[in-house]
Amino acid sequence: MNDRRNRRRRRSGNGLIDVLNGLLTLLVIGLVVVGGGVFYIASQYYGTGPTAEDRVFRVESGNTLSTTAGRLEEQGFITNSFIFSQFGSRVEESAIVKAGDFNIAAGSSMSEILKELTQGNPLRHAVTIPEGWTVWQAVNRINDDDQLTGSIDQLPPEGSLLPGSYDYMPGDTRQSVLDKMQLAMTQALAEVWETRQPDLPLQSPAELLILASIVEKETGVASERPQIAAVFVNRLQVPMRLQSDPTIIYGITKGQSTLDRGIRRSEIDEATPYNTYQIDGLPPTPIANPGIDALRAVANPDAHEYLYFVAKGATPSEGHVFAETYAQHQENVARYREIEEAAQQEREAEAARQALEAEEADAEPDATEGDV
């Protein structure tokens, strides 16, 4: 009887051990499987990616991490979208992807790609409009950008665009870029108008915009804008006609071409709505799109008594000389003409030298020909 009980106890004890051993074995196997799975996932996530060269990947506006992962796999940037989205969202600082185009380096890992899409800077796409361009020039540049869609068929009002660089996403409409430029000018003009000097001879933001466009076209030297603006403000206060050459040119071209020649005497004498040699006060519209600095210069011009200015030298970068009286101005004009005449003579002499060198070069025997 006792032997039978002892055998039962031994069998019961051995069975418990067998169960424990089985559970331990399963645990070890589970740990090995889990560990192997984690190792595989980590190696896939941090390992070298499949791309053989640098490529650009676009994240569309509103794309989620899951959507982005699927598109990355479809385009061959990664091998497993599930690992990218699920593992990446748990180990990286951010899982919120930015919209835009991103440069992905050859062999980038999933980790590197996700960091680029969440923390990197998208490639910049922008339309840049220089200060002093007309709306015709600006719209042509926008329409020529082949990464934008749609078209602009009607020119906006002259002077309604604020020059500068405007970012966009490829596929955006051209009209949306134009809208940004118009909104920027509306906001800038309102802000500048509020900060203007008291007692300016300007009755509205529209008049400030017109005068700023003239100032913009009169000088390419940024530091001169407040001086040039003050000359025109002084003339309006006298009152005197503005007598600005760029207004004559705009009356001829309407801002839809370049003159590419000097102004003729007949054009100075011709009465057009824009010819400030013939009309009093301001022309009816701006003659270009002025930049923010030209707007500010007109709102807060320098304090001086100058009524005249003329180019200082043969190149626009040399700026202008200013005068309070017409007699002083005539002296400045005479000096400018002497400088311009000397510069023209130098240009002609250089052209003659180049022609002579070309003639002598043609007369020389061909150095490549050998004796027969």
Q: Which tags fit this structure?
A:
single chain, 372 residues, mainly alpha, Dna Ligase, domain 1, two-stranded antiparallel sheet, 6 strands, 52% helix, disordered C terminus, transmembrane
Give an overview of the whole structure.
Among the domains are: 55-119, 2-Layer Sandwich (Dna Ligase, domain 1), CATH 3.30.1490; 135-304, no CATH class. It has helices spanning 2-46, 65-74, 81-91, 110-119, 135-144, 174-194, 205-218, 225-237, 245-253, 265-269, 292-299, 326-363; strands spanning 55-59, 100-104, 126-129, 164-167, 308-311, 320-323. The strands form 3 sheets. It has a two-stranded antiparallel ribbon with strand order 1-2. Strands 3-4 form a two-stranded antiparallel ribbon. It is mostly helical. Mean pLDDT is 86; it is low at 367-372. The protein has 12 helices and 6 strands. It is 52% helix and 7% strand. It catalyses: a peptidoglycan chain = a peptidoglycan chain with N-acetyl-1,6-anhydromuramyl-[peptide] at the reducing end + a peptidoglycan chain with N-acetylglucosamine at the non-reducing end. It is found in: Cell inner membrane.
Determine the N-to-C terminus distance: 131 Å
What is the mean pLDDT?
A: 86
Q: What pattern of helices and strands is seen along the backbone?
A: HEHHEHEHEHHHHHHEEH
Query: Mind telling me the C-alpha Rg?
Result: 37 Å
- Poorly predicted residue ranges: 367-372
Shape: elongated
Spatial sequence of strands, sheet with the most strands = 1-2
What is the tally of beta strands? 6
The largest pleated sheet is described as: 2 strands, antiparallel
Number of helices: 12
Structural class, by secondary structure, is mainly alpha
Strand content: 5-15%
Please bin the fraction of helical residues. 40-55%
Biased composition (Basic and acidic residues): 340-351
Membrane topology: Single-pass membrane protein
Biased composition (Acidic residues): 357-372
Subcellular location: Cell inner membrane
